[in-house]
Amino acid sequence: MRYLLALLLTLLNGSAGAEPLRVFVSVLPQKTFVERVGGPGIDVQVMVQPGASPHTYDPTPRQVAALAQADLYVAVGVSFEDAWMGRIRAANPRMRVLDSSQGIDLRAMEAPDHDGEPGRGHADEGQSKAAHGLGGHGEGESGQGVGHEPQVRDPHLWTSPPLVKQMAVGIRDVLTQLDPGNGPAYAANFDAFSTELDALDQEIRTRLTGLASRRFMVYHPAWGYFADTYGLTQVAIEREGKEPGPRALAALIEQARREQVKAIFVQPQFSRKAAAQVASAIGGRVEVMDPLAADYVDNLKRVASVLAEAGTPNPLSQ
Q1: Topology given in CATH for the domain delimited by 2-201
Q2: Mean pLDDT, rounded, for 180-205
Q3: Buried (b) or exposed (e) across 76-98, using 16+ Cβ within 10 A?
Q4: Strand 72-75 relative to strand 96-99: parallel, antiparallel, unpaired?
Q5: What residues are paired with 313 via a beta bridge?
Q6: Cβ 48 vs Cβ 24: under 8 Å
Q7: Over 60: is that where the pLDDT of 253 sits?
């Protein structure tokens, strides 16, 4: 009912002939967030196209030209922003830029240690400001993390529903500033989306209750915020984007057996070879899980379902 009211308000306000707000985002999940908060009156375009990597993406000339007409850019700290944000700003100096990571304590990406525990921990938020001038933390930024070694900031905030709710607050506020007349619709849309995120969060927590092993392997460590939110640990297979050598692969297999790991996630943008070798050796399963999927809610439900099915129920929880 609340969403229908918001939709009606948006349509009525849009009938006056005002141009829709033109918004750019970096990755597909953000498009979902902006559309849910903004409603049908928002024109949202995505920079990193399906199948491309946000680590190495180069905007097309058509995208750069379209940015000259944009009202808002919603950044999230992925690598390509570091290289391109200066040029994106130059294409349209009047365009507002929202840093979705503002106010969020960014974690450090896992530094794989195939002979022991993966490196973990939160990077010091004050150590580094992104080179793209957003005041946030780019994926390529380094600071002092665990053991005072350089750590890479993890930009995959959207894998945690509570963090998406926090990001949605910023989206609601900036849309309202740019378009005050539709403020009530944006507020109602946000409330409806917030309720859905709360329900998703609770469903995942329930689904992941009672696992004997709370570890899973990933080729690329993109699920850290999901793991932190739900008391899990991701174990990275790659090291700086490279496949593990024979010795590291053997250590991974031994670690997976020792820690009862059965689920191994790979992204469609990365190689599956090493993950398949580990899975074959431990009798586990390789699952293609894309943190860049547009169907955000269903995607995270599937992640939780696979982890629950692959995990061994703890007898004490029965």
Answers
A1: Rossmann fold (3.40.50)
A2: 97
A3: bbbbbbbbbbeebbebbeebbbb
A4: parallel
A5: 211
A6: no
A7: yes
Q: pLDDT tens digits for 87-96?
A: 888 889 999 9
84-98, 127-141, 301-315 — which is least confidently predicted?
127-141
Identify which has the larger pLDDT, 199 or 143.
199
Distances in whole angstroms, Cα of residue 29 to Cα of each of 99, 195, 220, 308: 15, 18, 18, 23
Angle at 180 between CA 174 and CA 186, to 5 degrees: 65
d(CA 315, CA 299): 28
Q: What is the pTM of this model?
A: 0.79
The helix (run of H) or strand (run of E) holding residue 29 is helix 28-38
Q: How confident is the model at residue 271 (pLDDT cuts 50, 70, 90)?
A: low
Give the β-pairing of 233-236 and 215-218.
parallel
In angstroms, rounded to a whole number, what is the distance separating the alpha carbons of residues 316 and 160?
A: 28
Does residue 123 have a pLDDT over 60? no
CATH superfamily of 211-309: Nitrogenase molybdenum iron protein domain (3.40.50.1980)
Joined tokens for residue 156: 């995959």
Where do you find CATH 3.40.50.1980 in the chain? Answer: 2-201, 211-309
Per the prediction, the chain carries an average pLDDT of: 79
pLDDT confidence bin for 31, thresholds 50/70/90: very high
Give me the DSSP letters along 228-294: HHTT-EEEE--BTTB---HHHHHHHHHHHHHTT--EEEE-TTS--HHHHHHHHHHT-EEEE--TT-S
